[in-house]
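step: validate -> pass
step: tokenize input -> pass
step: predict -> running
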Amino acid sequence: MADMDFDQRLAEFKHVRDRLVAEVGRRIIGQRTVVDQMLATVFVGRHCLLVGVPGLAKTMMVRSVAAALDLSFKRIQFTPDLMPSDITGADLVDQSPDGRREFRFVPGPVFANIILADEINRAPPKTQSALLEAMQERQVTVGQETYDLPAPFFVIATQNPIEQEGTYPLPEAQLDRFLFSIHVPYPSAAEEERILMAPTGLASEPVARVLGADQIRALQEAVLSVPVSRYVVAYATKLVRATRPADPSAPDMVKEMVDWGAGPRAGQHLILAGKAFAAMAGRAAVAVDDIRAAAVPVLRHRVAANFAAEAAGIDAVGVIERLLRDVPEPPVRRYAGLAVGASAE
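step: predict -> pass
step: emit ->
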């Protein structure tokens, strides 16, 4: 893909994306928006959180995406008794035949390309935090040694939004590491009928491997090179700043109903998501509509609605949707040129 011109790379990218969607569709009925957002996460090298009630095939979706990628995959079931070393690995003492003892590092399941952190909110905070360094730095520190994780590296976590007992809310610092918080909806009536017609057959459908590690890295380079105009960046900036109650540009609704808003990383992630959505559609530049499409999954876990919002029946998504209606686009005449960069770590 490196020898192609930009238009050819975009066309190839869209073709590969369509193949991935088709392969995942062998096992998953519907949920096209969820699958697209998961693939966008992979294409920009970030992480995502799947939130939904039990029985919506969240784990199967992750497994299906992993099956279409020729990468190593590990599933970690988070439970209250899971320890950090169960994720990262630990130093064990080996004794040689001559009686000498030495430490040997045994890697944990986090040493894979794709990590499914299943029901991540069932583990206590000290265990959840074992993923923080891995998600941010792509490395793991055990004792005095630091070990690099394989590249590419993605964490796709799942959690149940309604269960209270035996769960631990993710800290804001960890939530901010996720590009998207993807809420998995119930299927439509027609999709549910199809699911019930084949209750066991879909899970056994074979999924062909479409992409390997080198191809994924090439696709990521192609996505990151999609240009974004200063006009689009200005709109993303206005949208993010409008979520902050203390910002002068915030509307009265935000000042009344939001405790805290999104930080600069949210703006970077809006731009990254916009690039992924544009490339997946075969378009050569990011549009304002791409930022709007990314706004809810990027911002919903970064905006904290307060008691006043709850009393009015408005949650974080309601706040974001009102901002999408109320925050105007910047004047066109002020902006010219392209800003390709927007890398976020």
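step: describe -> The mean pLDDT is 86.
step: cleanup -> pass
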